[in-house]
Amino acid sequence: MIIDAHSHVHDPVDRHLADLDTAGVDRTVLFGTRPHPERAVDLASLRREMKVLDHALAGSGNSIDGYRTAWRELDEALTAHPDRFIGFGSVPLDLPEQDVAAVIEREVVGRGLRGIGELTPPPGQAARIEPVLRAAHDHGALPVVVHGFAPTTAEDLRTLSRLAARYPAVPLVVSQLGGSNWMEAVELVRDTPSMYLELSTANIIFSVRLAIQEIPERTLFGSDAPYGDPVLARTTIERVTPPGEVRDRVLGGNLGRLLGIL
């Protein structure tokens, strides 16, 4: 089974399904989203959507009301296509700890979602995810996915590693190969048994090759669609791995076992 470990709700959803079909992807982890760059028809409209993304990555607009539309869109996609999408739910990180736990119980566990993410702590503030890890542990060690590309810093990655060591039962996934800090991300994930590294958004092909070489059992194929493309992301994995067990693990086996669906 080919499983994309990282994608966001598309508008329309049919466009996403068509891309998955072209890529030969059976299922994909689906995150809710506030920005929708796939709606853009020109540079001006793309700038508007990316401004929403910039605010989210900076930790702005994190009220519950700001999440409600994203939760609704995610619910609609999951209800319409339960055979293709694996739902993960995100939560605001600036709430009091007891409120974070309550939101996870209501909006993640209560909706039957399989994990938490994609979390986007502001740069330099990765420690904000600790209440999420604690709640994830309390609900059967739900996997937690954290944004790894800029503006996430190398120190943020080190903070994530330290937090993962405190909650070793909770799988902690760093997305986008850790961005420009990919070498440190590979080392940290390699040396922290509960961490995983999702491989989307790589701009250097040998970063993917080396990540898989170092941690073949904890690297995950992902596209970060609509920012990335499932066809190109799968092709990247297949360019750096020969046919066989390792490629099969990265393209779906690792994540399938993590989620208990293989």
Count the E strands: 8
When the domains are counted, the total is 1
Give the biggest sheet. 8 strands, parallel
Q: So how many helices?
A: 10
| CATH architectural group | Alpha-Beta Barrel
Q: How much helicity do the residues have?
A: 40-55%
Average pLDDT over all residues? 95
CATH evolutionary superfamily: Metal-dependent hydrolases
Question: Radius of gyration over alpha carbons?
Answer: 17 Å
* Helix/strand order: EHEHHEHEHEHEHEHEHH
Tell me the structural class.
alpha/beta
In the CATH hierarchy, the third-tier topology is known as: TIM Barrel
Give unreliable regions as ranges: none
**Biggest sheet: strand arrangement:** 1-2-3-4-5-6-7-8
User: How much strand?
Assistant: 5-15%
Distance between the termini: 8 Å
Protein name: Metal-dependent hydrolase
GO molecular function: hydrolase activity
Organism: Streptomyces cellostaticus
Keywords: Hydrolase
Structure description:
This protein is α/β, with parallel strands linked by helices. It has a single domain (3-259), classed as TIM Barrel (Alpha-Beta Barrel). 47% of the residues lie in helices and 13% in strands. The chain contains ten helices and eight strands. It has an eight-stranded parallel beta sheet with strand order 1-2-3-4-5-6-7-8, sandwiched between helices. Helix 7 (182-191) packs parallel to helix 8. It is globular. The mean pLDDT is 95.
